[in-house]
Amino acid sequence: MSHQSELISEDILSYLKQQEEKSLLRFITCGSVDDGKSTLIGRLLWDSKMIFEDQLEALAVDSKRVGTQGEEIDYALLLDGLQAEREQGITIDVAYRYFSTAKRKFIVADTPGHEQYTRNMVTGASTADVAVILVDARKGLLTQTRRHSYLVSLVGIRRIVLAINKMDLIDYDQQTYINICSEYKAFAADLGFEDICCIPLSALKGDNIISPGDNTPWYSGPCLLQHLETVELPDNSHNKPFRMRVQWVNRPDLDFRGFCGTIASGIIQPGDKIQEASSGKQSRIARIITLDGDLKEATAGQAVTLTLEDEIDISRGDMLAANGAQPATSDRLQAKIVWMHDKHLLPGRSYLLKMGAATTPVQIAEIIHKVNVNSLQKEPGKALELNEVGLCRLNLSSAISCDLYQDTRLTGSFILIDRLTNATVGAGMVEDVLPPSDSIPWQEVEVDTAALADIKGQKPAVIWITGRRYAGKTTLANLVQKRLHSAGRHSCLLDGDNLRHGLNSDLDDTDIGQVEHIRRIGEVAKLAAEAGLIVLVATTSAYAIERRRAREITAEIDFYEVFLDSPYDICAARDSSDFYKKQQGQGQDDQTFSKHNYEPPTSAELVLDGNTDPKTLAEEVIKLLECKNPTPEWII
Amino acid sequence: MTHLEQLEAESIHIMREVVAEFENPVMLYSVGKDSAVMLHLARKAFYPAKIPFPLLHVDTTWKFKEMIAFRDKMAEDVGFDLLVHTNQEGVEQGISPFVHGSARYTDIMKTDGLKQALDKYGFDAAFGGARRDEEKSRAKERIFSFRSANHRWDPKNQRPELWNIYNARVNKGESIRTFPISNWTELDIWQYIYLEKIPIVPLYLSAVRPVVERDGMLILVDDERFVLKPGEEIKNIPVRFRTLGCYPLTGAVESNAATLPEVIQEMLLARTSERQGRAIDHDQSGSMEKKKQEGYF
User: Fold this and answer.
1) What is the ipTM of this complex?
2) The predicted structure's pLDDT at residue B270
3) Which chain A residues in 293-332 lie under 8 Å from chain B, judged by CB atoms?
């Protein structure tokens, strides 16, 4: 840190005063493998004197042991933190680095360039203001360069540094530099960048990193650090209408009710009129409270606690907004989604959407198109795979207030969460808020479910029999239905295979087809139960998430999940379609089969042993209905 | 906003998110300077309410005496719930850093002690004061770091974190460790302590103290359990500590910096990084990554 060591040693108080005024710039570095990214960041840390003596000693030892620079210091080793990466010589995850100069503190997201790790780049870019895109001067623009540029543009970065590295290896040739710059600017014309700064440099030799190199006399622009210190922060969030999603309601006692959150945009003062965006209820800001006393004003970026003049019902996830300039509220959105998980995004499947402090179940209703991140062309697609980007239409279980991502990042972005594993599987950016589904009105029906059930003298229910293929589900369902019928009960049997001849004849056996198959059966089961029937469903329904969804949509009807647990061997022996033989041919045994083809229920109302006589099993189902519905009608 | 105001706002946002999403969070309180900043941020985040979770100190019984006195005074002054846990099995076995070596001692008294306490109270989220600039393996740590039911950290299986949205969902038995000051550097911490006048353990400031030079480190003679080896002698010299942990494992530096600006000045002009005073990082290459996988903070 010797850049200011004189001031530090002579007048520490002035130095500290100066430090108080520093701003913060977050940037991301991206580039292909071997573009020298880690070396560049190592060099920035090195040249801004953020490397201490003991780290340097460790570095010198490591450089000799695993370095790629012979006897010279390998700066990349400063950054490759995880042991596995050091051994493979690659960076496999987002790492954050810190350094500062007299003017700014910098947070660098160092992200890998490998194709399979695009999700990490989007992650790093989501909090960045500037992107530094590395290009190897010998190779020029690569497919990766285009992909990274598209992704940073997608995530809303508007300031780009094109760092043309390894100039030392092409003898600092000016013409190559000019060609790469003009080719890049032509390519990037449609990406919405406001500022592109092309810098010729050598990370290894240190040219144009913190000071102009003697080797590029023809270059008169800023060196990298100088540019990063002075580039204007694209922060105009103060000028936009006030937005704050309530994160936590502070209620230490009955007299105090404060709304905590981080202001996403705008400025507020006590007395300002606000409204809760989804309900439209209005009030005024009473106080802006902090530990150090009340504030007269708060702006975008601050984490605040507000009290209101009126008591209105506000809870976590609600959005406070400037009166008269509130965001749209809807349960239907159109958004770009970046998929981040090995398990594909499947339309029809239910996920959790988390937008700021608001969380709600969501279904991807449709993939409108995918974006090929290499060619930037739109392509049709039925599912999104890891690292794919698509424009999707989403149906939310409950309405949410949000902005368009291009207007306000923090109120227009969300993540998608897998409902079983809780993994973060996708990232989304709102492009359009569609009219809410209640604009398609629900029609009042005068004869309701209760009336329809009463006339039959029974309580409607859905009995969802799930199990591996050839477990004996249809046989069981038939026996149960016979028992119900002989007792005078009105029932209906939805058999998966039979439905595939009619309603679901357009669906194939892929994951996407199966998800939609189960979704439709769930909807039909709901309709039939609402007509007062006892509905028996017999279908493999291999996925736990879809079974859960079927239970959710029939929320007001009793739902019993019955797991017919027939052993793999028995199912395989009954197989008349060679399904199991094919699986065995692919080397799958019982365990791998379960893993890939059937997710057994963990909380079924009833688990039946498939080795037992089906008639006995049918009695158990009847018993379940009796004990869960202890009404006289259930004495069969 | 200045860079410190931005860091402060981010940390407060993270703390509120944890309190809103989890049923039973806890803050790990090590009594050091990073913990002091976390505590201060927690007061700001929830004011006027009191801090809505307890602070947990894993006491190895080998902490500096002054740390324990400071801890108890802070609990009284600020008014937070303080939980203190010690691995009793370790105490009964007489585990000592002098006898059993830093690696084994740390495993038993710190890592196991922490796991015991988390299991005992059933915490589903724990705040830690780790910073990404401290050590290479921490540069990739998430702010919400997912831990399996047996407290393991799997570096290959961490959730991507985008914008300021944190996935806080866990199944029963699983937990999250949260690092609200991930993005702060050592300089940021000191500067914030200075600006906000945050109380810290006096050991961070220089004073004449009795120390012994052992294995290249200056060790404070903090109590009678420190036994001199042949040839060792106690020197009374002005020293201070750059980090605080267990006294037999924490080296002092010779220093005359008795005020915060002087400490910052010395830090900025120093040529060695902060964790060097700790014996545990040097045991083997990549040792911090190994410790983390096993559940160490």
Assistant:
1) 0.89
2) 72
3) 299, 301-303, 305, 316
